[in-house]
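Researcher: First entry.
Model:
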Amino acid sequence: MISYNYNYGPAGKAINYDLLNNPDAVATDVTISFQTAFWFWMTPQSPKPSCHDVITGKWTPSAADRAAGRVPGYGAITNIINGGIECGKGPNALVADRIGFYKRYCDLLKVGYGNYLDCYNQQPFA
């Protein structure tokens, strides 16, 4: 689920719905909830790549990304989603929980986890 006006405006425009004046629709309307989730997953929001590009290997980190510890993997996705709160703070329960859920679903789907699961040492995207 998305949050904050900097997401509601662009997401609403993409799905042709006024989320700025009705942000609760993201939580109360299942169709809008899925549309905005897909929008967030697929849409790069500079300087952040899309989550989709990271997980499918289409994102190549810049020199600045690498210097900030941002490398392809699930940790970069956490950084895109909630980096300012969860990343760059060393080991913490929020990231560990997120990794646990990710591993559980990977196990259910019988797919590998990949490398770089955490963002403990990644600086958040600007």
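Researcher: Second entry.
Model:
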Amino acid sequence: MTTEQPPDRVARYQRRFNTLFAEYFDTLGTTLDAPSFSRFTPDCLDLLRDLSLRGGKRMRVVLLHEAARLVSSDPVEGLDAAALSIELLQTHGLVHDDLIDDSATRRGGPTTYYAYRDRFPRHPRAALALTVLAGDLALALSLRALLDAELPVAVRQAMVEVQTQAAADTFVGQIVDLERDFAPAVPDDEVLHEVADHKSARYSVLAPLKLGLLAAGEQPALYEQELRRYARLVGICGQMRDDYLDLFGDAATMGKPTGTDIREGRHSYTVARLLSVASGSERVVVEAALGNPSCTPEAVAAVREIGERRGVAALMREDMRRYAEQARLVAAGWRPRWREEAVAFFEGLPRWSVDRAG
């Protein structure tokens, strides 16, 4: 059995996929049917390439390959096409997320929306439209990557169905994520779990699992409920971790400021727990900062101090580890059916994902 740890596997898959992704964009300009006079189309592809290659841990690619290894240790056809599809869908999500959030930076560079705003400072509607269309193009390319794959028709069709469903689930997740923040009451955990499941778990965990199994000749529909449960639990862990780090994380380590959820008025796991335990005077401090885009670092620090004093930080860490353990137990149940080494990877992944620093 290999002793390779999850971070090492992530790095190995990341290096290989980044080369594949760059080669894909190098040839895309010659395969995409666009009028020869168009300058905006190559510019759009350059922005998508820049965003796609600028960073990202490629965890979805890792899950895809490890899911195939649950079934076979031999090379599996179709994984490259599936990996491209997964990451192009992610690019689509990043473009639209940054537009929804009015974010200026992503992965150490300008977002697609702000890049277009810089190009068209006197035409804001054109910048908005081109951003939406860039995200839409990435989604279409995601599905085309699978349709062009040299795979049996039935496998190719099943993969497209997985990605189409993942995209639809994610869009619904984005809608209910916005809806959650409009609700007058603090959301309970079940609402937060549903948002995390639809918005991220289904396309970031469940879809890669299914695609890897399909490529390896397995029928994921036979194990739908346990795959969904594993993905949901990992997705909850990941969203809790993101929400925790947004207030209690180290800005230097993460490469972005803390307090974004507070300033934007998001009813995240952390914010919901803060509001549920804060005293009268503490709640006034939290609510004054919540949804205030001009909230100062000092005000965020005051909210953070309340969260630490009231045990929210410790509670979040405990909850993340509890859900990670539940996910581990689901994966452990795969051992009689699938390969030991790959099962062990999925067992260890939830806790590693929770414990990593940035």
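Model: Note on the second entry: The first helix runs from residue 6 to 31.
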